[in-house]
């Protein structure tokens, strides 16, 4: 099934795309499918998430699904801001019983993901891969191809992308999120970006922990594939 996805909004990132928004080391992306509202990660701080969501016109109490990529504080620390939603929360393999019980006590319906999971028409969680830690991704199948959202890519952005395309047998379109390439050499970053382009991704949006060299390579060599990101970036389809 193909989605008529309407909007993606970056709610939390350590870079600012639009004025009046707060930055924080972490990531949260809002996905509006029209009939369903999804939050991918929650950033590190509920106050930051609440402020930015309010400024960007996102009602956190109406979230249907929350997908946590991995269990580091900069991706799950803001979850208190979404407690009023009573949403279903998908956490990856490796989540402790203590965490599951805590989320349940907050009113969330919790599911631990071990394999690739279809959670709505055209909406999938790509099974957790081990980095460490265990990390899962969110994928939306659109008429343009697959949109892949990644948290920090601890298992490797190429490994996650290959797994998503293989599991879902989909045509690649866009990948965005944290690529975890800080500390890599420029030649290593260039090779990884080239591989993403060779896979068929038309649009690449590095966020959070991707590192400055990814944007530099994209702007220099693959400008037609690059969109500069940050908190407040809104993509409409």
Radius of gyration: 16 Å
What's the multimeric state? single chain
Determine the N-to-C terminus distance: 17 Å
Percent helix: 10-25%
Low-confidence stretches: none
- Portion in beta strands: 25-35%
Tally of DSSP helical segments: 6
Name given to the CATH architecture: 4-Layer Sandwich
Strand order of the largest sheet: 6-5-4-3-2-1-13
Q: How many domains?
A: 1
Number of strands: 13
Highest CATH level, the class: Alpha Beta
| The CATH H-level homologous superfamily | Ribonuclease Z/Hydroxyacylglutathione hydrolase-like
- What is the H/E string? EEEHEHEHEEEEEHEHEHE
> How would you sum up the major sheet?
7 strands, mixed
User: Quick one: overall form?
Assistant: globular
Given helix and strand content, the structural type is alpha/beta
Mean pLDDT: 96
CATH topology: Metallo-beta-lactamase, Chain A
Summarize the topology:
Elements (H helix, E strand, L loop, with lengths): L6 E6 L15 E5 L4 E4 L5 H10 L9 E3 L5 H4 L11 E5 L4 H9 L3 E5 L3 E4 L2 E8 L3 E9 L2 E6 L6 H12 L3 E7 L7 H14 L3 E5 L4 H10 L12 E3 L1
Parallel strand pairs: 3-4, 4-5, 5-6, 10-11, 11-12
Antiparallel strand pairs: 1-2, 1-13, 2-3, 7-8, 8-9, 9-10
């Amino acid at each position: 099934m193909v989605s008529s996805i309407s909007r993606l909004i970056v709610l939390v990132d350590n870079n600012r795309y639009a004025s009046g928004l707060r930055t924080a080391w972490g990531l949260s992306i809002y996905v509006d499918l029209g009939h369903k509202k999804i939050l991918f990660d929650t950033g590190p701080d509920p106050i930051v998430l609440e402020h930015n969501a309010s400024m960007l016109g996102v009602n956190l109490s109406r979230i249907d699904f929350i997908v946590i990529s991995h269990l580091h504080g900069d991706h799950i620390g803001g979850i208190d801001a979404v407690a009023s939603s009573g949403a279903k929360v998908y956490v990856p393999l490796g989540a402790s019983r203590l965490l599951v019980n805590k989320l349940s006590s907050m009113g969330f319906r919790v599911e631990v993901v071990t394999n690739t999971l279809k959670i709505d028409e055209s909406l999938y969680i790509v099974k957790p891969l081990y980095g460490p830690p265990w990390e899962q991704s969110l994928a939306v199948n659109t008429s343009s191809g697959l949109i892949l959202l990644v948290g920090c890519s601890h298992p490797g952005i190429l490994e996650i992308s290959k797994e998503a395309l293989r599991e879902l047998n989909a045509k690649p379109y866009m990948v965005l999120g944290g690529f975890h390439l800080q500390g890599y050499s420029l030649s290593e970053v260039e090779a990884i970006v080239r591989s993403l382009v060779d896979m068929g991704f038309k649009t690449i949006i590095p966020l959070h922990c991707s590192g400055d060299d990814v944007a530099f390579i994209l702007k220099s060599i693959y400008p037609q594939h690059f969109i500069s990101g940050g908190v407040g970036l809104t993509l409409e389809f």
